[in-house]
Amino acid sequence: MRRIRISTWVLTAIFVAALVAYLLVKPSSASITGPQQHANHPTHSTSPASGPLVPGMNPKAIPHSSAPVKVPG
User: Half-sphere exposure (CA, 13 Å, Cβ side) for 17?
Assistant: First the structure.
């Protein structure tokens, strides 16, 4: 059997240390999934209803302004 290089042991130790650190500080599953909705208390969105989205289009990138648009002419 070949001898394992020192660099392999170092990389293995770094991986194990990172895995242990992640397991110690990982967020709980409740904070990942977000707030839970209850059947008795449905939540209501405060954002306006939007129409169908076009693929590849970012709705937040569209400027919404109430100022009138100046048309040259």
Answer: 6
b (16+ CB within 10 A) / e for 3-31: eeeeeeeeeeeeeeeeeeeeeeeeeeeee
Q: How high does pLDDT run on average in the chain?
A: 73
| pTM score of the predicted model | 0.36
CA distance 27 to 34: 12
- Per-residue pLDDT, 21: 94
- Round to whole Å and give the CA distance between 52 and 49: 10
Amino acid at 9: W
22 in Cβ contact with 31 (< 8 Å) = no
The percentage of the chain sitting over the pLDDT mark of 70, rounded to a whole number, equals 44
